[in-house]
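User: Run a structure prediction on this.
Assistant: Running it now.
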Amino acid sequence: MLSWMTAAIAAIVAVAFAPSLPPPPFLVGSALAGFGFCLLLPLRIRWPLVAFLLAGGYACGYGYWRNAELLPVALEGKDLAVKLRVLNVPEQRFANPPYYRFDAVSLGPLSCSDHGDQGCNSVQLPRRLGRLRLNWYGAEPPALGELISADVRLRRPHGYRSAGAFDYGRWLFVSGYSAIGYVRNPDTTPRLSGAGLSAAILRQQLIAAPLAYISQYRHGSVMNALLFADRSAISFTQWTLFSQTGTSHLMAISGMHIAMVLAWGWFFGRLMALLGLRSYLNAPVFAFSFALVYSAMAGFPVPTQRAMLMAATALLAYSLRRHISRWQGYLAAMLLVLVLDPLAVHQIGFSLSFAAVGVLLWAYQGQRQRNSLSLLHSQWVVIVGLLPALGLWGFGFSALSLPANLVAIPLVGLAILPALFGGLILYPVLPSLAAHVFSVADTLLDILFKVLVWLADWLSLVHFNPPWPALILGFIAVMILLLPRGVPAKWLAIVPLLALFCWPVPRPAKGELWLTVLDVGQGLAVLLQTRTKTLLYDVGPDFNSGFNTADAVVIPALRKLGIDRLDTLVLSHADRDHAGAAPVLMEKMAVNKVFWGERLSGLAVPSEECARGQRWHWDGFVFEFLAGGRNSGVKKAIGNNSSCVLMVRAEARGRGLALITGDIEADIERQLLRPNRQVGLATGDAKQNGLQASVLIAPHHGSNTSSTNAFITAVAPSEVVFSAGLHNSYGHPTAGVRKRYALHGSRCWHTGQHGSIQFRYQDGLLTELGPVRARQYYWEGALNPEICAKFKSAG
């Protein structure tokens, strides 16, 4: 039984991570050939192979269906008219000005908006789309279940493709979304009659009143998260505290919460038996009923689905007096979850929850003593056992996890959750008594927060991003450490376990330079590394909502590269898309020195204005400003034209390796082309001028105001990078600019399409280049690095 389930799980996981799906005719032909081959094999091998083929075909079919629900690429940025059903209560986003976000599903066929781009009419429209995530920039958003006829502007799921960054696009797709976007002209959007009714809408209507009531308490956001899995109101400060103390799992209704409620139901069933309602099924029926109601209150998120399936398997075996091994139940639950959602393996909760249960089963295999599952020992098992999984997802490790959870789990499970459930039951009938019970829960949460804050002051979170060899060593070490007592010398496995934390992070060797253009959307952030030094040019944008690319992209990338200090930070100019996230970066990352093109207030480290002619030497490379600041040679060197222009050369060869230009426009480009502005040269010959570089970070994201023909000729880049958001509202890079680079023979890269891009130099020669995240998923499609190729034959 284990072998065929394992084969089916392996097939579904393999398809989920496949870079592309096979064509349906090839899939059908391969399946038929495979089934024919199975007839020649012995039974012991036949059924696992049949299960593998069936599961793989099912996962491919699911992938075809999900791909068909995606917004066609040709419709991105077009105005579409569609009828929508609102699926949840719109969530207010505290930006400036505030707006609302809600999920919706399209009903009926799409059509082109009367007020939109007429190019929409030339595209074949899909009959329907799947789930949509929409922003509403109006005063009064639609209500839960309401039907509206809206004009929307959509784009496919997309996020930052950068090492260490959260892949929002991947999360959107595996969560069932077909597109994201916003409602056009929300204040005049027609509201249609007829409210919809579904299980999700009914749940939202039932919990709306208690959600609003509980929110008035000091820790109402956490209380709502524990009761209804509504974590939208938990603040960033609270999440940071949970992360530092390893207690974030308490805020996601998962296996631990379901186990607590199962235990209450089991105890209640036994109590009923003692009171005279004797039945062998009392305990399992009450236990499952309690857990089912709790899962329904939470909206059946994926972690509760996994827990309920495992609980159902165990309770059914108990009720039928059948013996099912722990591993059989474990694999059966995993297979059922993957059948319900073949892409669940991409979710963090899937990995962490099944990893936690797996290590517990491994550690306690063959043990029947009830006292063996003590809270202290089980917490130690889970903390050690999850280290490889935490490293795989790039999460930090908190040494405070054990003491924090020893306090938090009993307090939440034995006191806070019972009080919350008691208040919820009393709320409709005795609201005054319910208020006192909720107050008790609020007070207990206050005590919990004080304990967590006290613990968090002791130690900080340890961030580690081990490579695959270290992960494999760590996994083997964990399996050895968690073997039952009596295994000789198992503690020696601590040594390879340390590989998770101590594995050397790759850095440039002697004579090497690594240049990485980070994907920060519509902005710029470029990381340069030599053997011993690190420079960051710009940090990317921040937004009114509080979101910023320092937290989302830059700091995770630096941590993944093992960088905890920047030798130099260059802020090209003060525009928000370049320096907006700088204060957050400098608050969380040590910086030795800052250069700026426009003065920024509040810099707490030594800083100075960049100026033409400033240069320094690092590990065989020369870094030099060719322009920047107020003295750039034009009358008004402010804004874009004050950008620091940084040239990087190989010291031995004098070869120009990379030219980073910020947002300079044509005026500064002409200044750079003048002979007296050539650094160390008195000739304007393009073949010998000081501007020539193999890699150019395109000025002003590829705007028409920059990248003149004369400038491109002088730089003569073999590679040009446009740091711009996908389908940004500015149209960067423009078609005219791409055409100019194509005619000069440059290969073009676009961070919005390719994600973060890295160039590696050895002894002054470009030796490696390409996207940092080489892996592609089947819903993303192939990426073409030569986005300028179609212009090469023009003119």
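Residues 2-68 form one domain.
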